[in-house]
């Protein structure tokens, strides 16, 4: 190693990154990977979250200790019952009803006092003072913490850069878009300011986060805090969405660093299997079954940690999977840990009918490992960004079934821009991932499930081109995270920025 590299390594070891994720699995998981990547570069890292969320990632905590990575995991008390949340409701996937989402988000600022108490008790002989705070963009209160510490604050964004740019432009051109909505009945509008034409739907302009006064107040706090941030880290890679990285940086005027796909963090099989949470199935039996299937023949069906479908929709999906004749792995959180009434008895009968051809996982699944298995050729997904990236990393084509928030715009990226997916055609979002009384029972019929799967898994020029593009993106994703790649360099540039800020 050169003396210059030695000098850089010694400087990095003097850095201390304080990470504050949002307590939602889609946000927690990549932040955990980011923490380990920073520690692997030699920096000290404090990962601060609540007791329940630390318990979920105990495998990671143990692994970091065993490998002597300089990471500390800090428990912050979250007074759920004091703000009207159920006892232990420390993660978004535990919120029982949509009307409790905003109270949960507003309560996040209550983490400030325990975090500052921890920082006041630091033994500076053992652990250096924080030199940079990296927080999820929804943890807006951390702006004041960084200001008091007089250190840079970087925003970590979970969604795609494509979504970030679209969301920013929707807010910027909202009056113009609302006027366009009144002038037409089509429901689709051209979004100004993008590098190429993209149509957005009415619900993306009038979502609850923009139209409800209480939500608007919260989102304004998020926006103000984001404007004060020194830079932005995005869990994506330049080669996936180059035009959007360039335009997003132009529009925000901020330093924007690609650091993904963070799911490519190198780790052992058992650690990957417990990524995010311990698996709800015997992994040995699962992978023995996958080993017996033909290459590229299996469909994985999974809608992330928050989404909860109605019992009628679950059954309709099951009948569609059964009729397709395709081998499948179906992750069903609505049976077991996220119980939906009336499903369990039906599911038992369903499993008997598809025995040998399909596997149902009740709860958490080792999704990354399943997607990487050679037998898996298609993925029915809610278009959450973590799931999307995991499919891209595995070179697996997608059938897109968005439910809320960024998922509809991610679908456009997958289907219309990257052309590695087939859409189910769902247009109406949920208020939140969980159901509500006014939700339509069935949005996708069994016939539509069968039709989309046939198109996704079928051959022909269209299917072959889709798979070819997916494999090409897989290679680009892996190259981005290798030493010298665009995301490897993005993380290094962010570290250099913090080093330079400290010197100034």
From TrEMBL:
Keywords: Transferase. GO terms for molecular function: UDP-glucosyltransferase activity. CDD domains: GT1_Gtf-like (cd03784). It holds the Pfam family Glyco_transf_N. InterPro entries: Glyco_transf_N, UDP_glucos_trans. Residues 18-262 form the Glycosyltransferase N-terminal domain. Belongs to the UDP-glycosyltransferase family. This is Glycosyltransferase N-terminal domain-containing protein. It comes from Dendrobium nobile (Orchid). The lineage of its organism: Eukaryota, Viridiplantae, Streptophyta, Embryophyta, Tracheophyta.
């Amino acid at each position: 190693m050169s003396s210059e590299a030695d000098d850089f390594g010694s400087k990095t070891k003097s850095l201390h990154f304080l990470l504050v994720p949002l307590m939602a699995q889609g946000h927690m998981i990549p932040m955990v990977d980011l923490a380990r990547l920073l520690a692997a570069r030699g920096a000290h890292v404090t990962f601060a979250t609540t007791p329940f969320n630390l318990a979920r990632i105990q495998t990671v905590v143990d692994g970091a200790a065993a490998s002597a990575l300089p990471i500390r995991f800090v428990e912050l008390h979250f007074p759920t019952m004091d703000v009207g949340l159920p006892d232990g409701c420390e993660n978004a996937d535990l919120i029982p009803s949509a009307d409790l989402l905003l109270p949960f988000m507003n309560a996040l600022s209550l983490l400030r006092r325990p975090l500052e108490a921890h920082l006041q008790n630091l033994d500076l002989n053992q652990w250096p003072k924080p030199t940079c705070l990296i927080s999820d963009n929804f943890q807006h209160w951390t702006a004041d913490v960084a200001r008091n510490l007089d250190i840079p604050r970087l925003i970590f964004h979970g969604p795609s850069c494509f979504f970030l740019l679209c969301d920013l432009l929707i807010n910027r051109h909202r009056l113009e878009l609302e006027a366009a909505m009144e002038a037409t009945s089509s429901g689709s509008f051209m979004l100004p300011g993008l590098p190429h034409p993209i149509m957005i739907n009415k619900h993306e302009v009038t979502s609850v986060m923009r139209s409800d006064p209480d939500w608007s107040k919260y989102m304004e706090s998020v926006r103000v805090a984001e404007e004060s941030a020194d830079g932005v880290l995005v869990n994506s890679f330049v080669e996936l969405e180059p035009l959007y990285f360039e335009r997003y940086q132009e529009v925000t005027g901020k330093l924007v660093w690609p650091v993904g796909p963070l799911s490519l963090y190198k780790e052992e099989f058992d650690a990957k299997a417990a990524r995010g949470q311990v698996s709800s199935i015997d992994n040995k039996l699962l992978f023995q079954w996958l080993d017996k299937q033909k290459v590229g023949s299996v469909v994985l069906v999974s809608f992330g940690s928050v989404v909860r479908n109605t019992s009628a929709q679950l059954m309709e999906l099951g009948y569609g999977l059964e009729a397709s004749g395709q081998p499948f792995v179906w992750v069903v959180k609505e049976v077991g840990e996220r119980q939906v009434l009336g499903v369990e008895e039906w599911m038992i009968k369903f499993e008997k009918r598809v025995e040998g051809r399909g596997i149902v996982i009740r709860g958490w699944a080792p999704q990354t490992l399943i997607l990487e298995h050679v037998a898996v050729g298609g993925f029915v997904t809610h278009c959450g960004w973590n799931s999307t990236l995991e499919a891209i990393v595995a070179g697996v084509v997608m059938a897109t079934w968005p439910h809320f928030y960024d998922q509809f715009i991610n679908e456009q990226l997958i289907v219309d821009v990257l052309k590695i997916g087939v859409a189910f055609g769902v247009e109406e979002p949920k208020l939140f991932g969980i159901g509500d009384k006014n939700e339509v029972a069935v949005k996708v019929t069994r016939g539509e499930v069968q039709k989309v799967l046939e198109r996704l898994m079928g051959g022909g020029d269209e299917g072959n081109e889709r798979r070819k593009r997916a494999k090409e993106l897989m290679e680009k994703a892996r190259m981005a995270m290798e030493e010298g790649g665009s995301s490897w360099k993005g993380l290094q540039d962010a570290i250099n920025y913090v080093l330079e800020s400290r010197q100034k």
